[in-house]
Amino acid sequence: MLLEVANLTVCYDKAMLLNNLSLRVDQGELVSLVGPNGAGKSTLLRAITGLVLREREITRRSTGGDVMIKGRVTFDGERIDRIPAHEIVKRGLIHCPERRRPFREMTVGENLYAGAYLLQDRSRIQANLDNVYQLFPILQKRSRQISGTLSGGEQQMLAIGRALMSQPKLLCIDEPSTGLAPILRAEVFEKIGEIRRLGITVLLVEQEVGTVFKMASRNYVLSSGNIIAEGTGDELLQNEVLRKTYLGL
């Protein structure tokens, strides 16, 4: 087991966003998290990758409010729920955030190098860059272009490429299809499939249920901070109530 989340609860002041949630991701899997807006999917990724812990520090200093985190997150045999986000990155657990978020005033190449900021070995950085360019040839063509001028699809490829520069063991990708035209969504999903075939484990948050159910080893359905179902795509689609009420199918 590469990632194990056990009894994870996250509250922002009195608002409970995750409630005693548990899941696992095994080495080599592509696991999806699906469910309605506001279900807690993005909060779960932020909690796993240490960002909620950072938000708690900022909230306490700036407003006096509190963010409560309980539970256990274990990655590659080590508990990580109380260590800083940059230390989690060093261990190979990488977060590719929702809505892409490139450094808009920097070039594509500069963005990619920023993704390798914790690496010291130049040859390793160059090898990672070559791999990203092989996966996303358009990024090599756009390497000198300002990132803010890219199309939405190109920015999403850049966001994934930047995450890959850290050479992840587990890549958490949040809503990669948001705002993309159907043809670009299909291309992005194809690339995510290629990433998995390269041996990188993937935890994917996505609304395009029909597509991810075909790609994923297993799926978790979240609603109101709770996991209400787990299984393969075929298993989950056999449940009519789940399909209509939570998956919008």
Determine and state the CATH class.
Alpha Beta
Number of helices: 11
Spatial order of the strands in the main sheet?
6-7-8-3-9-10
| Residue runs with pLDDT of under 50 for 5 or more positions | none
Termini separation:
31 Å
Number of DSSP E strands: 10
Structure characterization notes:
Helices cover 40% and strands 25% of the residues. Strand 4 and strand 5 form a beta hairpin. The protein has one domain (3-245): P-loop containing nucleotide triphosphate hydrolases (Rossmann fold). Helix 4 runs parallel beside helix 7. It is globular, with a radius of gyration of 18 Å. The mean pLDDT is 92. By secondary structure, it is an alpha/beta fold.
List key phrases describing it:
4-stranded antiparallel sheet; globular; alpha/beta; 25% strand; single chain; Rossmann fold; 249 residues; 11 helices; 6-stranded mixed sheet
Provide a concise account of the structure shown.
This protein has helices at residues 41-48, 51-62, 85-90, 108-114, 122-135, 137-141, 152-164, 182-197, 209-215, 233-237, 240-245, and strands at residues 3-12, 15-25, 30-34, 67-75, 78-79, 93-96, 170-174, 201-205, 218-223, 226-231.
Summarize the SSE layout with pairings.
Blueprint: E1 3-12, E2 15-25, E3 30-34, H1 41-48, H2 51-62, E4 67-75, E5 78-79, H3 85-90, E6 93-96, H4 108-114, H5 122-135, H6 137-141, H7 152-164, E7 170-174, H8 182-197, E8 201-205, H9 209-215, E9 218-223, E10 226-231, H10 233-237, H11 240-245
Parallel strand pairs: 3-8, 3-9, 6-7, 7-8
Antiparallel strand pairs: 1-2, 1-4, 4-5, 9-10
